[in-house]
Amino acid sequence: MRFFWIPALVLAGPAFAADPDEVEFFEKNVRPVFVEHCAKCHGAKKQSGGLRLDTVGGIRKGSDNGPVVVAGKPGTSMLVKAVRREGDTPMPPKTALPAEAVAALTEWVKRGAVLPAETVAKSKGQDHWAFQPVVDPAVPAVPGAATPIDAFVRAKLLAEKLPIGIRADKRTLLRRVSFDLIGLPPSAAEVEAFESDNSPHAYEAAVDRLLASPHFGERWARHWMDVARYSDTKGYVFTEDRSYPFAFTYRDYLIRSYNEDRPYDRMIREQIAADRMPQTEDRMPLAALGFLTLGRRFLNNQPDIIADRIDVVTRGFMGLTVGCARCHDHKYDPIPTADYYSLYGVFAGTIEPKNLPLIGTKEQLANAKVFDAEVKRMEQAAADFQAKMYAEALAPFRRPQSVAKYMLAARALRGKSAKEVDNYLAANGLDVRILERWRSYMDAPHRKADPTFVPWFAVVDLPAEGFAAKAEHAIEGLKKGNETVKAVLRAAEPESIRQVAALYGELLGGNVDPDFTLVLTGPGGTTNLEPVVADKLVAIAVKKEFRKLRNAAAAFRATSPLSPPRAMAVQDAPRQTEPVIFLRGNPANRGPKVPRQFPAVIAGPNRKPFTDGSGRLELANAIASPNNPLTARVYVNRIWGHLFGQGLVRTPSDFGTRCDPPVYPKLLDWLAARFVQDGWSTKKLIRRIVLSDTYQQSSALTADIYRLDPENRLLTHQTRKRLEFEPLRDSLLVAAGRLDETVYGKSVDLFKTPAPTRRAVYGYIDRQNLPGTFRAFDLASPDQHTPQRFQTTVPQQALFLMNSPFVAEQAKAVAERKEVAAASDRPEKVRAVYRAVLGRNPTTEETALAVQFIREATSASGKLGPWGQFAQVLMLSNEFAVVD
Predict the structure, then answer these.
(1) Is residue 173 helix, strand or coil?
(2) Are 842 and 830 in contact (CB under 8 A)?
(3) What's the pLDDT score for residue 54?
(4) Higher pLDDT, 59 or 232
(5) How many CB atoms neighbour CB 796 within 10 A?
(6) Torsion-angle region of 247 (φ positive above 0: left; ψ -120 to 50: alpha; else: beta)
(7) How is 505-566 classified by DSSP, letter by letter?
């Protein structure tokens, strides 16, 4: 059964008294009708017209245009009228309801349309564990547990009769924590020093050293960049410049924030509303707003841009899939469409300033005037070229002969079909764009009163026979009209409308009077085309020349050393408007107004609308509140997932009712509570986790453990992790002794020749043309928020390490390292290569195999030479690419 409602019709909703007799009547007589006859089109899977009749909440809500019954008045209730088959939309469309069903619905409405107490909408997900307040559980008393984390884990393992994992060896542990904390391998000397340090605090000291490293921020910023869908470009935006020239300032903000251990709640506020917070001399926090602005541009479709921002904010910070409520109420979580559009209003009231705010050091800012002057010069050159380009492309249409042709065409094609118009265009060699502009110009209602064209309309429909005399008479009889035009027509004594058009062509296109020229080139003029239309009239070679000038300005802005950094910021619009629901997500189908406010599932029924501008700061405060049950849990889970290979909750960005509950819910809450108590400190959280025995256990598996805990849900062992692309590439440079350890700066193209030696976190990310190597190594897609990366083992990964010129270059550099070159014999050289690539000494057997390999490779070593080939073999090993 489907219902279609008259848009202007607003009906009173049903009564909701909990009269037991009336409820019983509904349950026995009405609900079965809805379930049997209506649910197919108005049930859980489909809600035609926005109407759902299988839930109390759906019946109460009614259709997209309001309630569908008037309590006590079946005669004016659309639902009753439809099932009675009255009007234009009888329901069901094909077969009428049984008479007893119609009678039951009629009687129900007549008796007040009483519904039972709300159950579905109210209970739907509200009792879900993630929406409950974070508790601070007591730590279990477990013998041998070194930390509270271990106590929670061991209590579970003992209950499940599973063995406690053994501790990893020192080299494995240092390599693991080094990659996890800074994304770089320890050197052989660092490993040996750690292995020889028998102090009980040796590991703790190593952890503190890594946390204090400037490379810590680079590693953890890259993790958050996945969440923030970081890119240096906008994606496909047709002809405009695709680059985000200052995207790097957001990345640098993240690196700096993690290095300084900026409280996470402050990072939340800055990434959503830094411009609304008190400003200090340090302008870098404004760069945090790149979190909002660096998403795809969707051909500048505003509803899609806002949807992307809602998604990254709600999933990124709270694991809440609010975006699913864009077109309808969330199918699983208690998030109505109204709450989506409440947030839509926040971001619809947010704009990007034309002039991005300057940030950076005094030295950088001192170059701003010189840089701005050069940019202005380059942009002006591009603008001048564009103006000349369009003027030359449109010049033929502004000549007298052309003007006459199009005026005649606009007259001749009045009321003609599309086919007739096409035939006329082909026969007369006219351009459809110019013709349509002339037709709309001449057909404008006020045109007949336009002094310039009063004479034209006086003669345009005169018959051809005796035209000259009739035209003369018509012109003489005009009391209105431009005197110049009338004088020209009288003097010329035209004998046909074609001659009149020719005279108009001379007046409008012959530079007789600037006022006449405005008909062609002024605002709304017949040949004053929008750039996107005029562009189609320009030769391809000329357009290429223009784009070269325009892109040169953009490239200078992005790459010039004089370019002072700017924040990819936002600001509140000068005027805020109350948002409305877009019915079915269609901006053209506007529904009721909603206030800007926080989702009710978190804020509760007594929430207050946002009143401070767009509401972004209030939104940020609500997300960053210690009372928000999701924010700390979601972030703690993300951190845990990076350190263990998987989160305590397996869906890091979806804590809704469809997610699997955590195996260790009390541990998650304990960590979340500690995180907030520690001032939202990321470093303290990571330190707490990596100092636990649970983190330090071996990844070695026994058959029993694999059988009992194959997915490591219970944390019986540590998870082996394949290096992501960034630490893998960085490790190649470390092995070669060529890594540039400079922190911060503009993005670089990692695939140019010669290859840059900067860390991969500084790599240029082009979301439209993402390099294949990134895809092969599962780099996060910059097109959308990425909760966690895929982990694959595909041939392209091995082929890259075997054939990439970049890898070959690093392997050759390993062979040329001074410690390798200075070795006195082959075994000593083998040892030096092992230490450079794998950070350890080879075993006796490995040394013998390597010496044999070198001996056999000497005669046919290729470009790399035998030692370069040997280094590349080690780079291809699992030991190099996997963290135990």
Answers:
(1) helix
(2) yes
(3) 80
(4) 232
(5) 13
(6) alpha
(7) HHHHHTTS-HHHHHHHHSTT-TT---HHHHGGGS-HHHHHHHHHHHHHHHHHHHH-TT---B
Distance of alpha carbon 275 from alpha carbon 277, whole angstroms = 6
- Quick one: tokens of 102? 């119609």
CA-wise closest residue to 283 among 647, 566, 552: 566
Encoded tokens for 131: 């929406």
User: Of the candidates 624, 113, 30, which has an alpha carbon nearest to the alpha carbon of residue 318?
Assistant: 624
Question: What radius of gyration do the chain's Cα atoms show?
Answer: 36
Strand pairing category for 590-593 and 721-722: unpaired
Measured at the alpha carbon of residue 324, what is the angle toward residues 321 and 330, in degrees to the nearest 5?
95
Residue tagged 């209950």 (tokens): 159
pLDDT tens per residue, range 559-572: 777 778 899 999 99
Tokens of 555: 């490239």
DSSP state letter for 721: E
Q: What is the pLDDT of residues 763-816, one digit of tens each?
A: 999 999 999 999 999 999 999 999 999 988 899 999 999 999 999 999 999 999
**Phi, psi for 869 (deg, rounded to 5):** -65, -40
Amino acid letter at 460? V
Count of positions (residues) in the chain: 884
Task: Read off the pLDDT of each residue in 677-689 and give the average, rounded to a whole number.
Answer: 98
Supply angle C-alpha 37, 43, 48, rounded to 5.
Answer: 90
3-class state of residue 571 by DSSP: strand
User: Which tokens go with 260?
Assistant: 């300084």
Per-residue pLDDT tens for 497-553?
Answer: 999 999 999 999 888 788 889 989 888 898 998 888 888 888 989 988 988 888 888
Taking a C-beta distance cutoff of 8 angstroms, is the pair 223, 642 a contact? Answer: yes
Among the listed residues 802, 828, 806, the one whose alpha carbon sits nearest the alpha carbon of residue 817: 828
C-beta separation of 671 from 150 below 8 A: no
**CB neighbourhood size of 840 (10 A):** 17
Report the candidate in 270, 190, 167, 175 with the shortest Cα–Cα distance to residue 224. Answer: 270
Residues 239/535, Cβ–Cβ less than 8 Å:
yes
Query: What is the model's pLDDT at position 16?
Result: 39
Percentages of the chain per state (helix, strand, coil), in multiples of 5: 55, 5, 40
Structure tokens at 598: 């926080």
Instruction: Indicate the DSSP class of residue 294.
Output: T
Of the candidates 374, 321, 746, 340, the one whose C-alpha atom is nearest the C-alpha of residue 566 is 746
Q: Quick one: which of 772, 866, 745 has its CA closest to 812?
A: 866
